[in-house]
Amino acid sequence: MRVLICGGDGYLGWPTAMDFAATGHEVMVIDNYLRRTIARSTRSEALLEAPNLDDRAELFQSIAGHRIEVRIGDCADPTFLNAVFSSFLPDTVIHYAEQPSAPYSMRGFHEARLTFDNNLRVTFALIWAILQFKPDCHMVKLGTMGEYGTPNIDIEEGWIDIEHKGRKEKFLFPRQAGSLYHTTKVLDTDLLWFYVRTYGLRVTDLMQGPVYGLSTDQADLDDRLLPNFHYDDIFGTVVNRFLVQAVAGIPLTVYGKGGQTRGYLNLRDTLQCVYLAATKPAKERELRIFNQFTEQFTVNQLAERVSRAGNSLGLDVAVQSIANPRKELEDHYYNAQHSGLVELGLKPHPMTDEVLIGMLERVIANKSRIDTKKIMQRVRWA
Length: 382
Ligand SMILES: NC(=O)c1ccc[n+]([C@@H]2O[C@H](COP(=O)([O-])OP(=O)(O)OC[C@H]3O[C@@H](n4cnc5c(N)ncnc54)[C@H](O)[C@@H]3O)[C@@H](O)[C@H]2O)c1
Fold this sequence. Notes:
Layout: E1 2-6, H1 13-22, E2 26-31, H2 34-41, H3 53-64, E3 68-72, H4 78-88, E4 92-95, H5 102-105, H6 109-133, E5 138-144, E6 159-164, E7 167-172, H7 180-199, E8 202-208, E9 211-212, H8 238-248, E10 252-255, E11 261-266, H9 267-279, E12 286-292, E13 295-298, H10 299-312, E14 319-322, H11 340-344, H12 353-365
Parallel strand pairs: 1-2, 1-4, 2-3, 4-5, 5-8, 8-12, 9-11, 10-14
Antiparallel strand pairs: 6-7, 11-13
Bound molecules: nicotinamide-adenine-dinucleotide.
The site of nicotinamide-adenine-dinucleotide has 29 residues, from β2, α2, α6 and β5.
């Protein structure tokens, strides 16, 4: 396949590019370094310095012998995107190119507008590039489990059958996101559904939970090929923040009661899911939705797991509850279906102590680079 990866410099984009190239596909990545720019402007730089995309691609080719083509530019700019798209003519486009930080999107007007404009405009530009130049191209789009929020009923896999006054119809599962970033993902889904049902696009929308992990078959070849590891309050997920707090000797900061439940997955499983979705594509005029996670945890359970792994390495890990900077339920029902990707062939890698210890060891090796000022929350929802 010819695979175009938008957002190829990102935490998920770079390992995905190596994975597809290593399995013999023709890969092109696009990125405009938006995440690096925001990280610099908010003092949220990653723990490990990552070479830029051209250098990473050269390094990967010299080590593994696989080529990844790089284009630097803005996917929201149709002039740039159409030129790249119409010359490469991908069979599959993997759409990661969004501003993915919920706290950043809640920081103020400028950040909210950037998130809103960027995310919607990239999705819109990609839809139109496909329509104009390769209508049978399959889009694999990264959504988020956060689109559903935390409803007091089971979360279905994308769709729900509703019976109302004796009549039945299938609808998108109700969505009620908890941040502006997550709301842009809801709007993306609606936009995609409109273009699927009206113009016949083929789309797989992956409702993904928070991803953790650094290790993949290709990233393990050389430390300079590792994905970005953010531990700050803007880009760092709760798992990364806990791991770094454990190593830095700071109590793991649980927001509020810590009963917030989400579905998590290992980076290796994201690669599997995206690969399965791309190689077993959605049909024409189909919006196929999968809930992409493998295990559900509360924040308290995550803190317990990181403490156990840290203590086994001789770290003295404490846990502390702090006032919740977000507006969210801290104790709630949560049961999300997630069988579709397993039926497609996913073999999950669970969050074992061994996995957490492997990540802790990498953080310990870079302990001198930790800036503890980056960890505590700087953004409040109201
Ligand atoms: N990492 C997770 O835990 C997670 C969970 C659920 C969903 N997602 C979704 O997966 C996707 C990738 O997430 P990630 O963690 O790799 O984020 P990331 O920020 O590391 O990667 C996104 C990449 O897209 C690039 N980008 C953004 N806007 C662009 C534009 N207009 N033109 C070109 N490049 C652009 C950024 O520079 C960045 O390199 C995002 O859409 C995110 O919402 C991620």
